[in-house]
Each structure stands twice: as structure tokens, then as C-alpha cells.
Amino acid sequence: MAPGHPSSPDTGKRNPRESSPSNRSPPTQARRWLPTGGVYARDSSARRRRPIPEVWPTRRARGAASRSWWTTTPSSTAASPATRRCSSTPALTAGCPSRSSDPGPPTPAPAASGGPTCPPGSRSPRPRGPRAPRPPPGRTRSSSLAAPPRLGRCVPAKRPADSWGSVRNRLPRLAFALALLAGSAPGPATAAPGIGQFVVRCPYSHTLRDDPIVLPGSPGASHSHDFFGNVTADAYSTYDSMLLGATTCRVPSDTAGYWTPTAYLDGEPIVPPVMRIYYLGHPTARVETIPPGLQMIGGNRDATSPEENPHVRWSCGQTVEVRTPIEPAPYDCAPWAGYRFVDGVVAHIDFPRCWDGVGLTPEHVVYEVNGGCPAGFRHVLPELSERVHFHVMDPTGPDGAVRLTLSSGPYYTMHGDFWNTWQQPRLDQLVRDCIVARVHCGGLFEGAELSWARGVGTGAAEAAAAVAADASGAVVAGWTEGALPGRRSSGGRDALLRRVDQEGGVVWTRRFGTPGSDEAAAVAVDRSGVYVAGTTTGRFPGERRAGGEDVFVRRYSPEGRLLWQLQLGTTAPDRAAAIAVDGGSVWVAGTTWGRFPGERRGGGADAFVARLDAEGALRWVRQLGGPADDRGLALDARDGRAYVAGATDGVLAGEGPVGGTDGFVVALRSAGRVAWVDRVGTPGLDEARGVAAGRRAIYVAGATEGVLAEGAAGGLDGFLRRYLPGGAERWTRQLGTPADDSVSAVDVRGAAVHVAGTTGGAFPGQASAGEVDAFVRRFDTKGVDLWTVQFGTSGPDEALGVAVDAAGAWVAGRTWGAFEGDPTPGDADAFLARLRFV
Q: Which residues does 126 contact at the CB level (< 8 Å), separation at least 6?
């Protein structure tokens, strides 16, 4: 939320857009409004190509709720959103699989022997099925790439001079080639025509000497493994803990665990950048979904030769059109380096698919025998094929021997582990819509759609300022000036805290305050409870009032019981804007017009950061500011460091202004010392309104009137910037429409970054619902914008907070309209919206 308040002193440099939400008129395009939130990503296709989605994005849906979100009776379950997907209809499948860097769905393998596909300009002694790979761009058929010398299976092509000289001669040969291709049998772990499949891309996560399946509860007892997908996987993992974990997978609902032995080249460890997991159907059998919690192992770690590990093969990659040889051993990929998709040797690990329907451990799943499941294992599951990309072009030595080894032994001991801890409803949907329906869905780009949106209306003003999520649902913080059913007013404006379940049903509500004015501005959750911070003009029981406006911090149990509270401040106004929890510490950030004990006032308004212990005892307070106004607007904490973002009108930490108002981010060590500072500035107005700390990066989001990157879209734009933990900027994305747009909040989970905010226009592929709409946009960690969902009422709507879990995103904010099926009686009402990943 914006930190300003009517009672805040006028320093002479006050931003007129800092007014309290209760006194702000509905935002319109006519008054050059700076939203309190709002980011969206502009389609910059004129400057860079956007990725082609491999699953068609879903249409925008409007959630309808029959009851107000703020009623104390749990709301009814919203209908499941309809899902658009790749279809066997040609009009729908066009553009589904990517044909650039993503290998896409497998192509039919050579028949019978499974021998290699010969490179351009050579041929096999006998017909073996599909044609050889096409030459890369810029090469002709006569300038072929030589095959690896050790294969010795391809001979130079002897083509008559006029064999391709006319259309008349070409057509019979083309017809014969197509017939030959259509009749070829599928090779190992490839999808034949009519077999449904989908592909998930999961970057590398971490390396441990743990095996959660074979040696649970025994850290360090296994050979080294590289983990992909679930970032929490270790020896102590349980099914429930994995469900709560973040993921590196492109599909955030894939919280499953995938791991393989660590690879070495000449004794040096290799960090494989990515694994692609193919989920494949069956040509004849009825395929069932993978049961929750099932554990499987593919390959044979005890093999003494490649022949003893037939379910592991090696290649240099493939696309829909081109495929490199699939061999029992790694080989030199240099002859295929001219193809853009070739990035080095790839291990193919095929998993068993026949389940006995009884247990969930590896011995309950076996491989097919002679094309069918053996007796006692009659449940046919999707076949998993893990493709590990090592980014090693030549894993062989001068003598042709394989230099690549594994922590489990030689290359032929390669194997893979899989633990199904997907968000099960999403996996069930993919199996049904892709595999059972026999649709090639290809590589998945997750999208989202609005499941429902609900408002609170009391006839007075309300706002939902922040939201936090956990496995059971979400907690929303805000304030109300009206009377809620069954809740007594403390006087004036009261703070609100509400927990809801996954479907938006109310679990508990806490309305609290003093005889003065009280607002809850921020909320955070962990396993031990709920933490809320805000501002009060009164005095809470047992606390001391310091000045006109004070900061309050409260901790509740997961069931909603108050555990402790703290009121702090200076003799001048103090306002809280953000709260974060990390490692037993509670961090609070905001703005003060006074001076905390032991601190130096910079002048005007200063940003501040306070650190409390888990029991609410104040550890320290730090003021950050220069001679002009400095406002703390956002905060996050991770690994003992806090990151505060905001806006400054002057010099901050020795850095001068770029424009009138600049954004800033400051990293603080656990003792409160400044680690680094960076400004976000243009000659126009710039504010950093959100910050999120990920495992390997810090993300700052906000609004700008200038040009930070990629050019301005018009009016006010949103932005997202990525920093390394040490403060180095990696990239900046500026996004917007010709109207005013702003980002108010950001959240990071695994390999996905989500921003929420407000737009006065319409994003590409989205429609404007009213004067001003809320939106959520997703980026990957490289800054690629993946999708946008824009939603709202016929009146102005602004998103103020966002929180992401494995199933979707929660958005909290304020509306001056009424969502479909959810009439709200007030002028300005709080709302909570749920977006589902599809």
C-alpha cells in the first residue's frame, strides 16, 4: 500500500498520490492516477520474439460466487475452470509444440534394430525408417555433417544427378519416403502416432548425497544426486513436505521430485542445467493416472554393461522434425552442432509403467514384458522418460572411450528416481486431457485463469491490503469502516485479518483495533502462525502510545488465537507498510517522520526497518534516509538478510537522485548493517512498490514514468528488476499499455515470478472490464513474460497484494464495482480473487 496518510506531516515534497485509500476517489484515466499497485507486461514482439506456447492459453473466465467473501459462512466451491488444450484438430495444434530450443515431442524411431539416423549427405546400407536429419540453415544437401567415425554405419549417398531435378521425379520419391516414415515402428521412449503425451521442463535445483526413496532419513548416506523440480527434496522429505515445496519446473503445479546420479567429466562434476520429463501414453492399453505418492526408479544402477541397462539410452537431442541417433553409450555431438537444438549429450531414462495397484514403493511398479504388463501388474500408468541435458558436446576421449562417469559408477549405471508429489488435480487433468485423449500436448507452458473473485461490502469503505498463502489457503489483511456480521467495531476504522480455505470459505476472522483509527497493511505466515503489521492512532491494551500514529505488530496462532502484540514508534507519525518472517525473526518496514532511539533522522520522512524475535521482543530499528523524503514501501527476508524497497526524493546512502522521485532497494545484514543499495531511476517518477527474495535472486517491482528498459509503453508503466544476492542487476523488464499501469506486489516461487497491479488499458490477448482493471503477470527467472490475466468489474479495480502457491495465485485489493454474481453494497470494497494454474 502507499504509505501516505492524511495525518502525515507536510514536508513540502509530499507526493499528492500518497493519500489514504479511504480518502482517495475512484481511479480514472482522466486524473492521471498513480495506482497503488499494478504491473503488467507489454507485448514487445516488435523487439523480441515471444515463446510459442505449447499448450494454448486459456480464455479469461469470470468466477461467480453466490455469497460475499466476507460473510462468516464458508463460500460454496467454485466450479472448476474450463481448460483449453492442444487438440488433434489441426487448427488447434498449430503452434502447440515449440520447434526451437525445446526438443518437443519425440518422433518415431528407426525400425527394428534402432540404429542411428545417418547425417545429411550419407545413407544407411539398408532402409531403416525415417529420413536423415535435414541440413541446418545455411547448408545444402551436398555439404553434409560427418557422422561420428566410431559408428561406421553410414555410407556416402550416391544420388543420380537428376534425381531431385524436377517435380516429376521428386513426387514418387517423396510419396515413398512418407510411406516409409508412416510405417516405421516407434523406438524406446518415443510417442508413436495416436499416443498422447506432455512434456515438463525442470531446471536443475541442487545436489545432495541423499536419496529420499532408497535411503529416507539418512542424509549423506547415498552417492551424490542432482535434483530437479522440487527444491526441498532431501533425505528427510515426506509426501506432505514435498507438496508444500516450491519447484523449478516450468509448470508450478509439478512439485514432484526427480533426481539422477551426479555426472563427472574427467573427474570434474557436471551441473546439468535442465531435465525434460516426457509423460507418454500407450498405443493400445487404457492408461490410468499416476497415484499420489508413488515412487519409481528407472534404469539399473547395478548394471555391469550397457546391455544390462536397456532402459537407458543416449543421444544429442531431437525436435519434432530432426532426431540424432539414440545409442547405448554417450557419443560425440560435434557432427550435429550445426543444429540449434543440439546442446550436448542427453541421457534418456525410461521408467516402468505397470503398477500392481497395492503399494507406492518402487517394487510395486515393473516394466512391460513383450509389449504388455505381467500378471499382477495390470494398472497401466503413463510412461515417464527423463531426459537429462549435460551440455557436454564430446564425452569421449581420443581413443573413443567414454570419459563421462557417474557417482554410481560408469555411464551404464545411469538411473533416475521419481516421486509423485505433483499437485494431484493438475496431474489428473493432464493425464486425462493429453494421454487418455491421445493428444500431443507437447511442452507445457502453464497458464492461469480467474476461478472466482469476491468482495466485501458493508455500506462503508473497506480495503484488502495484503495477502499471504500457505498449504491450507490464504490469510488476508486490511481494514473496514463498516459493521461486519457478528463482529463488533472498536471505533472508527478497524483492522481486519481473515483466513480462508482453498475455495475461499471463511475459516476465521479477527477484527481488532482501538477507539482511534487502525489499519492492517501487511501479513506473513509460517508454520507456527500468522503475523500482521499496521498502523494505529490509538493504544492497544497493555501497550504504550508513542505518538500520533504508531506501528503495531501482532502474532496469531494458526487457529487465530492472539499470541502477542507490540506497539512501537516515535513522537511523530510512523506507518507500517510490510512484514516478513525468516528463521525465527520478524521484520517490519515502513516510514517514520520522527527518530527512533539510537538512530539519526535524515530529514523529512525516513524509511525504517525493525527486527523482532519470534516472541515479539524488539531487537533493533534502523532508519534509512537522506535530507529529503524516503519511504519504505515493501520488504522481504531470506537467509538472515532483509531487503527493503521504496521511494526517495533525494540522496540515499551516498547515491544522488536520477529524477524527482526514484525507487530504491536496500539489503540489510542480520545485525542491521547495510550490505548494498541500488536506485531505480529515470528523469520521471519512479517507485519500487514490491520486493521478493528468491533462492538465487532478488526481484523488485514498481512503477515508472520514464524508460528503464525496452522503451516506454505510454503514460505510467510497471517494471520488474532482477538482482543477484550481492546486488548486481541482471535484467529489467518494463511493461504497460498506452494508458497508466503500475505494479504493486511481487512474489517468487521456484522458477516463476508473479507480479500484480493495475492497468487502465488492455494487455495483448486480454479485454478491459472497466475503467481500471487488476492483473497478474508471470515471468520466468530469465525475464520472459509467460502469461497475463486481466480481470475486474465495470468500475475501477486495483490489486494491492499477491501470493502464489502450487495451485495458483491469490490477489487482494480494492474495487469500486461488483464482481459477477457477487453484489457488494459499499462504495469502495475489499476483494479477494483466486487464479488457478491450468
A: none
- DSSP letters along 142-166, please? TSPPPPPTTT---EE----TTTTSS
For residues 588, 594, 595, 597, the Cα torsion angle rounded to the nearest 10 degrees is -70
Q: Tell whether 572 and 597 lie within a shared domain.
A: yes
Predicted confidence at residue 415, as pLDDT, reads 98
When divided into structural domains, the chain yields a total of: 2
764 and 618 within one domain: yes
Residue at 780: amino acid letter: D
Cβ neighbours of 730 (radius 10 Å): 14
**14 by DSSP, 3-state: which?**
coil
* SS3 state at 402: strand
Residue 88 located in a structural domain: no
Q: Is residue 606 part of a domain?
A: yes
- Of the listed ranges 38-52, 738-752, 759-773, the least confidently predicted one is 38-52
Contact between 480 and 509 under an 8 Å Cβ cutoff? The reply is: no
Q: How far apart are CA 684 and CA 39, in angstroms?
A: 17
> Quick one: DSSP state of residue 744?
E
Which strand (E) or helix (H) includes residue 428?
A: helix 424-430
Please tell me whether residues 487 and 410 are part of one structural domain: no
d(Cα 489, Cα 480) in Å, to the nearest integer? 9
Residue 111 CB: number of other CB atoms within 10 A? Answer: 17
Identify which of 314, 288, 298 has the alpha carbon closest to the alpha carbon of residue 187.
Answer: 314
Which residues are 701's β-sheet partners?
690, 720
- pLDDT score, position 747: 98
3-state DSSP assignment of residue 647? strand
**562 and 432 co-located in one domain:** no
- Are 768 and 789 in the same domain? yes
Range of the domain at 222: 197-438
- Mean pLDDT for the chain overall: 80
The C-alpha atoms of residue 330 and residue 158 are separated, in whole angstroms, by 30
Q: Measured between alpha carbons, how far is 418 from 276 in angstroms, rounded to an integer?
A: 13
Q: Which of 723, 739, 743, 741 is nearest to 731 (CA)?
A: 723
Q: How far, in Å, CA of 210 to CA of 219, rounded?
A: 5
Phi, psi values for residue 11, rounded to 5°: -90, -5
Residue 206's SS3 state is strand
Contact 559, 536 (CB under 8 A): no
- The reply to whether 659 and 611 lie within a common domain is yes
**How far is the CA of 358 from the CAs of 134, 181, 216, 362, 663, in angstroms?**
47, 41, 21, 11, 58
Q: Are strands 440-443 and 197-208 parallel, antiparallel or unpaired?
A: parallel
Whole-model pTM above 0.85?
Answer: no
Q: Are residues 502 and 543 in the same domain?
A: yes
Q: Which of the listed ranges 134-148, 254-268, 704-718 does the model predict with the highest average pLDDT?
A: 254-268
Centroid of chain to Cα 282 = 31
pLDDT tens-digit map of 302-334: 999 999 999 999 999 887 678 899 999 999 999
Cα separation of the two ends of the chain = 30
> 332-388: per-residue pLDDT in tens?
999 998 888 898 999 999 999 999 999 999 999 999 999 899 999 999 999 999 999
Cβ-contact 577, 1 below 8 angstroms? yes
pLDDT at 688 over 70: yes
Strands in 808-815's sheet, in edge-to-edge order, are 448-455, 829-837, 808-815, 797-804
Question: What distance in Å separates the CA atoms of residue 339 and residue 360, rounded to the nearest whole number?
Answer: 41
Residues 418, 456, single domain; the answer is no
What cell was used for 276?
A: 525434460
Residue 826 and residue 808 in contact, taking contact as beta carbons nearer than 8 Å: no
The predicted pLDDT at position 41 comes to 32
